[in-house]
Amino acid sequence: MGLKIDNKTMRRLWLHTNGLFSNTKKPLDVVAIIKKLGFVQLDTIQNVSRAHHHILWSRHAEYREYMLDELLSAREHIFEHFTHDASVLPMEVYPLWSRRFNRLKAQLKKASYHRPDRINEWKDHLIKRIREEGPLSTKDFNSKRSEQKKVWSSPPHKQVLDYLWYTGALATSHREKFTKFYDLADRVIPEHIRTESLTNEEQINKLCLSALSKLAVATPKEIKEFWDAVDIKEVKTWLEANERSLVLVQWETNAGKWINSYALDDIEERIQNLPDAKTQLKIINPFDPAVRNRTRLSAMFGFDYKLEVFVPEAKRQWGYYVYPILEGDKFIGRIEVKADRKAKKLNVINLWQEPNNKWKTPRTKRLKVELQNFSRLAGLETVSGLK
Question: 137, exposed or middle or buried, with CB in 10 Å at 0-12, 13-18, 19+?
Answer without folding.
Answer: middle
